[in-house]
Write a structure and sequence with these properties.
9-stranded mixed β-sheet, alpha/beta, Spore Coat Polysaccharide Biosynthesis Protein SpsA, Chain A, about 280 residues, 2 domains, 10 helices
């Protein structure tokens, strides 16, 4: 029998999104699943609404009620502790899965004997009223640490992860917005990521999201995270990846408003590139 998959859904405010999200989890074609909803300190009215939605489904759903909202990192960690599945998947309650997501990713992980599988996704932007396919290019994970630092293209809810990975890692509660960037980066140093080129997640962007309401705080947290990471960890081994560097420089200036970050990345790239050619020159002469 194939491993059980635990789907963890943290919920805080905006309860009206939950029904579609929960329906996509309940109706997965992969049947050996458990669904865990983490009620992350919602008020009594929202808590009642959560249970009202849950009761429209026949499937047994575990609910963890947290007395106080402590953020998505804490909610995910609590869900992971209570989970009994061999694989874990995180689903934001305002996003939803393709009905074959779990089945296809489990099959792909087992075929490749890997621990972590991502997939492509569809972004539904309700702020600017457009929909776009977010597809990783074929070389995205050739140097996965570098890619995760520079590309900003993995979606946390796109991943299916062997629970064994969480024996060594948990979500860092100090982060309010970039907890997924942090843990994927740390996991990428220990485990091989694989990517299934199928659009299996639908991700909503809307004005009620914390990342939109607290956009300045979110950008500031991500900027500090990138600055520390690039300073301590960023090394270039494949110099054909200048496209990634260029995109990161573009985001650094236009989104993060940080020419300093852009210059730091460029200097590292140029230095190691120059050093590489210099070593070659010395060897030949």
């Amino acid at each position: 029998m194939k491993k059980k998959v635990s789907i963890i859904i943290p919920v805080f405010k905006n309860i009206h999104f939950l029904k579609k999200s929960l329906s996509s989890a309940v109706n997965q074609t992969y049947k050996n699943i458990e669904i865990i909803i983490v009620n992350d300190g919602n008020n009594n009215d929202d808590k009642k609404e959560i249970y009202k939605i849950i009761n429209t489904f026949k499937k047994k759903i575990l609910v963890i009620n947290l007395k106080k909202n402590q953020g998505v990192s804490n909610a995910l960690n609590e869900g992971i502790k209570k989970s009994t599945g061999g694989y874990l998947s995180w689903l934001s309650h305002d996003d939803y899965f393709h009905l074959k997501k779990t089945e296809m990713q489990v099959d792909y992980l087992e075929k490749k004997c890997a621990k972590i599988c991502s997939c492509d996704f569809v972004e539904i932007n309700k702020i600017s009223n457009f929909k776009i396919d977010r597809i990783l290019d074929d070389k995205y994970l050739e140097d996965q640490v570098l890619s995760i630092i520079l590309n900003d293209s993995l979606h946390g809810c796109s991943l299916l992860i062997d629970k064994e990975c969480f024996n060594n890692f948990s979500f860092n509660k100090k982060y309010k917005h970039i907890q997924d960037y942090d843990i994927w980066y740390r996991m990428s140093e220990k485990y091989q990521f694989i990517h299934l080129k199928k659009k299996l997640l639908y991700s909503n962007k809307h004005i009620s999201q914390t990342s939109y309401i607290k956009k300045d705080e979110s950008v500031s947290e991500k900027l500090k995270f990138y600055e520390d990471l690039i300073d301590e960890k960023l090394l270039f081994y494949n110099f054909n990846l200048f496209t990634y560097v260029f995109k990161f420089i573009y985001r650094s200036i236009l989104i993060y408003k940080s020419p300093t970050l852009a210059i730091t990345v460029l200097k590292k790239f140029l230095f190691y590139n120059f050093y590489n050619y210099f070593r070659l020159y010395i060897k030949r002469n």
